[in-house]
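Quick one: structure tokens for this chain, please?
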Amino acid sequence: MKKILTLALLGLFFVGCSSDDDTNDGIDPNCVKPTQLGTSNVSTRSLVFSYSQPVAKSYVVEFGETGFSIGSGEQRASNSQTTAVDSIQPNTTYDLYVRAVCSETSVSSFAGPLTVTTASE
């Protein structure tokens, strides 16, 4: 009886610890990703990233040197349709992405990349 109970508990443990292939990190197809990505005021160490998505509660911007993987870049949260990106290097090419946050449990997929090169010193 102890062996059956032990096997049953082990089975439940492994089922409970298995990954769910249906996870999508909260991406909601009804939460539309931002459009009209653009930059302005590009200087040696900063820029302004702009985007449009009228029904979003907020936005998450992620950026890094060209070719970085989403999830490994620097992130900024924003409550407006522009985000100041600073602490970047001169004469360097960056990829910028943005996603809409429609609610606490609903986000869009990332829009981008928008690629931009900062000014030389």
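Confidence is low (pLDDT under 50) at residues 5-23.
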